[in-house]
Every structure is written in structure tokens, then in C-alpha cells.
């Protein structure tokens, strides 16, 4: 009995439906995964789009139900900049965020390096103290700190009570840097010591170049925290308009323009824009530092 074998051409019709089914399943899977991503993106992006579009509306249209500006009023941003004190708030915020971030990084790196790479009595106790400071709400110590800075040192009405403490380290920054430095192999540090490097030189020449992602993450956290800080300037600088920051000045601006929502939204965009731009350009280092990837072999 002769058996006739099917040729490849005869197998195509039977396998084509299977391929179509597989492609359909793959397409549905792609739509499901990306639709969730698109929905999450829209959830976060749409409020920013609403603020941006409202900032470009006229006074009357900003009070209507329109979502798209009838005329693009770019002059709203000029009006915000012309507001008395706005450039001063901008300058104060840059000083507060920039200087505070630099002091925090410089003061936190050596402490984190010691907790990560040194072996000394009481190291675990020191680490527990750092963690306990992270758990302490700032509102608990605000009264004694205010009495110290305002009454004894006479620094009320300035931002120095907020900037100077950053020169003595930050608990969250120390802990985050310590966790990142723990991922750096000790062999690198030991090799530098064998070559005759002191601890300071080892930190500067060996550890810091390898810890750039962690330092970038700490710097961004501190910069965002200082830029958006409302509580601190309200406590120490509220009595002096010349020392207000953008976050605190924006509240005053909103009160003065409570019916001009287009100007309020324009001021909000100008306050948010630097933070968004900084994160956009530094997001790679930020994500790498937060995930504590450490050294890749």
C-alpha cells in the first residue's frame, strides 16, 4: 500500500489559521499591556496639560468651560514675571535649593562612606540613630528649633535657618548613600589602601566616581524637597517678603489673583518647569541611583 506524504504547500492552509490566531493573541496582549501604560500616563499627564492650556487662556475664557484656548495668550507669562517680587522669589528658591543640595551632598557622603566601609565600635548604633532621625517628624522639633534660630541667633525672616542645618548632613541622604555604597565591592577600597591612598583620597578618587548614580539620586531628592518646601519658609521667612520662596510666594500670588486663573496657572507652570526639566535630563542617573544597581561587572 502506497502512502502519499503531504507536501509543505499542502500544510500551509492548515497552519495559517494557527499563525493568525497566534498573531491575534500577541496583538491583544500588546494592546492590554500598552493600554494600561497609556492610561497611567494620561492619569499623570492630563493635569499638567490642563494647567498649561489654562495658563494660555484669556481672563474670561479661563472662567469658562473651554478646554482649548481661543487665543494663545503668551503674554500671561510676561505678566507673571512683571509681578513685584516674583524674580526675588525665584532667586531665593535657587539659592535655597542649590546651596542646600550642595551642602547636603558634601556633608552626607563622608558619613555614609564611614557607615558603609568602616568597622568601628558603635557603628550599628550610629546607623540606628540615623534611621530614627528619618522617622522623626519635623513638626516635633519645630518649636525648639524656631526658638533657637529666631530668638537666640536672630535669623528669623531669612532662609539661613533652613540652609545651615544642611551642612550637618541629612538622615535620608546618609541612609540612601550608605545603602548604595554597600554595593561597591570592598576590593576596590582595599586595593586603594594597599597602594598607599588615605581614606580621604580613597573616597575622592575611587568611591565617588563609582557612586555617581547614588549621589545624583540624593542630590535630586534634596533639590526637589527644597524647591517644593512650603513649611520651612512659612515658619522662618513669612515675616519678610524679601526672603520668600516660590512655593510660599505662589500662595500670596494666588490670593492676589484669585479670579485670574490664567495668571495663577501661568505662575504654577513657571514654578513646576525647572523641576520637570531637571528630572527629565537626570532621570537615568536618578533611576539607577534609586534602584541601587551599584557596580556592574
CATH superfamily of one domain: MetI-like
Instruction: Please provide the count of β strands.
Output: 0
Task: Write down the overall mean pLDDT.
Answer: 84
Strand percentage, roughly? under 5%
Instruction: Tell me the helix content.
Output: over 70%
**Annotated CATH topology of one domain:** MetI-like fold
- Which CATH-level-2 architecture of one domain? Orthogonal Bundle
H-E order: HHHHHHHHHHHHHH
Low-confidence stretches: 5-13, 293-297
Note the total helix count.
Answer: 14
Q: Which overall shape is indicated by the principal axes computed on the Cα atoms? A: flat
Radius of gyration: 28 Å
Structural class label: mainly alpha
CATH class of one domain: Mainly Alpha
Strand count, sense and barrel status of the largest sheet are:
none
Descriptive overview:
The N and C termini lie far apart (65 Å). The protein is built from 14 helices and no strands. It is mainly alpha-helical and 297 residues long. It has a domain of 206 residues: Orthogonal Bundle (MetI-like fold).
